[in-house]
Amino acid sequence: MQYAITREVSATIGRCELTYRKREPIDVELAHAQHAAYRAVLHHAGWAVIELPATAECPDSVFVEDTAVVTDELAIITRPGAPSRRPETVAIAEVLGRFREVVRIEEPATIDGGDVLRIGRRVWVGLTSRTNVAAIESLRHILVRYGYSVVGVPLRGCLHLKSAATVVGPASVVLNPGWVSPATFPGLETIEVDPQEPDAANVLWLGAVSVVSQAHPRTRARIEAHGITCRTIDVSELAKAEGALTCCSILFEG
Fold first, then answer.
1. Pairing label, strands 74-77, 68-70
2. Tens digits of per-residue pLDDT, 163-191?
3. C-beta separation of 52 from 7 below 8 A
4. CA atoms within 13 A on the CB side of 153
5. Among 160, 216, 230, 248, which one carries the catalytic annotation?
6. Using an 8 Å Cβ cutoff, are 233 and 38 in contact?
7. Cβ count near 95 (within 10 Å)
């Protein structure tokens, strides 16, 4: 069984953490509707969606990806780089504990799940304002016993590694070469975003289909040119909170 953990949009999302975007009003009602459409896409693609309730105390909590890194063997609960987000991990750890052994990243390490990209036994971790070197070493220590390699990735100009690069197929990555070097991913097919769509590298791969933001039609065309089936949804309100497609779910095999 394929599972997707999601969490409803908080009524306080307007107080979200921001690093690169200018704060602007978020239409919470529309954000709810967009998140419902997102969950529907997951359902349609065959994923069993575990829906957690919103919490006003955690404005960013819809972005569940940052709270955990899940492999076939473990659920690794993160220590998010923004202190305001650390309480979000409690509910996620409780859910993942039903499926996996749970381990935790401890102080002084800080890490957001959005900085972790995994393909098979290879794991790339972005070095960002949210994820530090201590976290990369902690993750390497946890995963090496299971045969994973863990590589730190320098980034420029973006919040997370998955802002700059995401998986769109078993051996394919879409990326913004201005934010991360294509040489970071040896042996993989790399697809560059359209230069007019610098934010387009965050794509949600669901196996049979890759989900692309409605705001990025040019990059969708580039991905489809590589024989990859795409679907488009609107996440404009979540984008105002520096969120994107992968941010809103934790995907794993049950």
1. antiparallel
2. 999 999 999 999 999 999 999 999 999 99
3. yes
4. 31
5. 160
6. yes
7. 17
Tell me: the pLDDT tens digits for 47-62?
999 999 999 999 999 9
* CA–CA distances in Å: residue 107 to residues 83, 90, 133, 134, 172: 12, 16, 12, 9, 34
Range of the domain at 243: 2-253
Q: Which of 158, 230, 247, 248 is catalytic?
A: 247
Domain count along the chain = 1
Cβ atoms 212, 234 nearer than 8 A: no
- Under 8 Å CB-to-CB from 82, ≥6 apart: which residues? 17, 60, 130
Assign residue 233 the CATH number of its domain.
3.75.10.10
φ/ψ region of 34 (left if φ > 0, alpha if ψ in -120 to 50, else beta) reads: alpha
Q: What is the pLDDT of residue 189?
A: 97
Residue corresponding to tokens 């693609």: 45
Is 247 one of the annotated active-site residues of the chain? Answer: yes
248 is catalytic: no
β-bridge partners, 126: 153
What is the pLDDT averaged over residues 128-136? 97
Please list, in sequence order, all residues whose beta carbon lies within 8 angstroms of the beta carbon of residue 58, skipping any fewer than 6 positions away.
10, 84, 85, 87, 88
